[in-house]
């Protein structure tokens, strides 16, 4: 499922359940800032989009 994430999406790391926000994408890697403010590049296949949080944090005019 490569290419389904967008910048600003809230994601959950599949291995430990950590939550973060996608800051940059260079397929197949995503630059993520995690809830503890740690930043890392992760393979997109290890990330799952959190639809509920993504919708809540979006700004709609």
Automatic annotation (TrEMBL):
Name this protein carries in UniProt: DUF3006 domain-containing protein
């Amino acid at each position: 499922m490569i290419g389904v994430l967008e910048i600003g999406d809230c994601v959950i790391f599949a291995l430990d359940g950590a939550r973060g926000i996608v800051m940059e994408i260079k397929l197949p890697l995503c630059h993520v800032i995690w809830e503890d403010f740690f930043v890392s590049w992760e393979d997109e296949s290890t990330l799952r989009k959190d639809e509920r949080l993504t919708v809540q944090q979006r700004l709609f005019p």
